[in-house]
User: Fold this.
Amino acid sequence: MTSFFNKAKNLAREHGDKIDKALDKVGDVVDQKTGGKHRDKIDKALGEAKKHTGNGDSTTRP
Assistant:
């Protein structure tokens, strides 16, 4: 199981830019579906997720 997680980490680092874009799209959809009521929580979750992509991009969406 450990090798699976290591492979997943490596893939996240290699394709961090694509993952970040996908996370932003998901965040936008969730934000839209919730009427913007939970934007701060969504942005916080996205920031935490983006810390693991290797890009270190934890900026919030506009």
